[in-house]
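Sat 14:20. Reprocessing the chain from the morning session after the first attempt stalled halfway. Input below, unchanged.
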Amino acid sequence: MAAMSKITLTLLCAAALISMAHAAPEDRGLRGYYVGGGLGFALGQATDDLARDTGSFYGMSYHLRVGEEVLPRFSLGLDFLSAGGAGGNDQFDAGGGGFLLQAGWRPLPSQEGLSLLLGTGVGGFSVTGKNGGEYDGLVGGAMYQIAALYDIQVSGAPGEPGWSLAPSISALFIPTSSGEASAMIFSLGVDLTWFGGRG
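Finished this time. Tokens:
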């Protein structure tokens, strides 16, 4: 495993342990722990092992998030995700996935539903030619994410258990390593999340 991947994994594990530390109810954020997931439309751009630009591909994205608002307005959690599809007039398939340590911040008291998310983790991505397509590539290692979502509470009151629906947008970057493939994947979707509340 490359040095960058080892560092990323070490940071991910350390921060995950910190995020699971139990805080007193009065010190935690209003939302408490959360479990959620979502799906969406994915649009990506990739290169293969020969650094050839494959052009765009499109398909679906899926993910599952778990974590806790460990401090008011600041959350830590894990995001398990995958995304992929077909491109080049159906001449190649592309897709990947992995897991991220994800930090979230709700920056605006006047817009409680808005969350900004940053993630870093490990995963993999592949490009496979078909129907005469010549693209081929595989990469494993670090991956990075930036995202935003807007929770619309559909049950419960602030600080109490409840469900939310959230439109979301994200960008996932999987960089090349020693001449291997790389990818940038954008997703636009909807999340459904259960918040446990502060209690």
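The longest strand covers residues 53-71.
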